[in-house]
Amino acid sequence: MSNWHARADVKALAVGLGVVTLGTVGLLLVWDATPTSFPAAAHVVLGATSLGLIALSYLIYQLHVRPSRGRLARAIILALAFLCWAANQALGAGRLSTLFNDLAIGLFVFDVLLTMAGWPTDTDARRELLQ
User: Fold this and answer.
1) Would you list the domain boundaries of the chain?
2) 8 vs 10: CA distance, rounded Å
3) Side-chain half-sphere of 129: how many Cα atoms within 13 Å?
4) pTM over 0.90
5) Of 29, 24, 76, which is closest to residue 55 (Cα–Cα)?
6) Would the pLDDT of 131 be above 70?
7) Which pLDDT score, from 0 to 100, does residue 125 have?
8) How many CB atoms lie within 10 A of CB 96?
9) What is the four-CA torsion angle of 15, 21, 25, 27, rounded to 10 degrees?
10) Across residues 11-38, what is the average pLDDT?
């Protein structure tokens, strides 16, 4: 199998997983309209699953785009934020849940700050590719 086909397969896997994730979000919205139609813990499971799956899908997608080290670091920060948020959702109330919530907030804030600061720059990405 050629490298191009392998990368296309990775992208298809990431997008397919993203579509499954969107399906779990759809079920979450259906739960909002008719909560009694679902088991008691469905909202928690659907919320945590949606967040965890999109983090995984995004990391798999990075295998397709083969980003620079800086852009990969940004992708990992974002995925970790979503995973912390998923853990917060899954754990319910409690100290550990609060910790994961605060970690998610910190990672999202850090990611936005990096965006506003313009890191990594396109010149950083080009320089890394030449090394």
Assistant:
1) 1-66, 68-131
2) 5
3) 12
4) no
5) 76
6) no
7) 54
8) 12
9) 120
10) 98
